[in-house]
Amino acid sequence: MEHRTWRHVLFVAVLSAAITVVFATSPALPLGYHAPALHVALETAAALVALVAAFLVFGRLQRALRLDDLLLASGLGVLALTDFFFRAVPAVTGNRLSTFVTSSAISGRLLGALLLGAAAFVPSRRLASRRQAARISASTIVALVAVAAGAGAAIEVWHPGTLVAISGAAGSGAHPDLHAQPGLLAAQLVAAALYALATVGFARRAVRRGDLFFHWLAVACVLSAFARLNYFLYPSAYTDWVYLGDAFGLGFFVALLVAALQEITSYWESATARAALEERQRIARDLHDGLAQEVAFISRNVALLDGRGGDGDLRRRLAAAAERATRESRQVISALSVASGEPLEALIARTARDAASRYRAEVALDLTRGVLLDPQRAEALLRITAEAVTNAARHSGATTVMVSLERTGGGLKLRVTDRGRGFDSAALATATAGSERFGLTSMSGRASAVGAVFHVTSRPRRGTVVEVVF
Fold it and tell me: Structurally, what CATH architecture does the domain formed by 2-273 represent?
């Protein structure tokens, strides 16, 4: 995710810069087209997409209740209502070029960009309640749209007329010479800077959370930054001419639509995962209350066979089988009870500590943070960790077991190490029974099933190292 996000952002930025330079320096390329109807269509589509995106992010806010999502939903809401009231509606009524409408649109878009920039960097602090989040977000949107309208009214009084003057022959094939008020140009530069900062913030958040929604938001902000830069060079958004900036603006809303669709996909995947987790937890409870209790009872009472003339070898084999079944049922219960959103390093830490504590051993952890694995490989890794730590704590005689998880190039390596008595791995490989042999076979099989490489290194009195490489 990390390399892909930054690679996509850099590619879109370089491509946008190249297109801007080529169009600005090539006299043969027509920069503008007099197309009022196309402007109306673009602004209407932009308003609708922004409304859909704002609605979906508001749903995300209601689920997660995070401060950054509140600012993001508010920012998109301001952009959506600004484009609807000050671009789409005036475009349909034929009043889209008045100073009030133009100034209100500029102010609203600048305020929306400010909120998006803030959303990209604020901490993910949790809010108190859904009602509070909804009230704050709605109040912020209404207040800022009102501020934009007030700014538009003030500018109309201060500067009546149009903010963009056109001198040039419309329809001549050459692009017109556009002149805009300095305040409008300054607003475009400020908005471009805000979207550039938002790009960095959303890209970092996409990498940290592995969230494709933020990935596409970062791409959208790159396109919007170049749209504002092009509006600074050729302020066509406030004329009847369609310029390169309008194409970048359309790209921003297309990327925003992709982000919205990704949010819908994420929602249904999350709902499916929650349903699966509830079923897994139900099965885990059934195992714990049924099978695990019965096996534990057998394990506690199998020693009575010795006092009643039982076969000693049979007792030992029954005890070993009961112990393996108990350990396996505990691992299954632990794996089934895992919440899908919990970080992998936290799951490994808890699994290792639980396994070691049963034999009064300590665990030393060195785990890389932010590692992402699909559910099948994550479960296999947890089961192998539990088995390897259990074997080390039970058989090695070491008081501390070391567990590390590290990235290796494009892969991942789990290592469980002890400095205990060790064993002859060659001799154990030829054994046909025993919990050690069973544990190695189980771990090797789990690793192989998910395409990982399993390796054990051990020598008598030199300790043991178990490695799994993905």
Answer: Up-down Bundle (1.20)
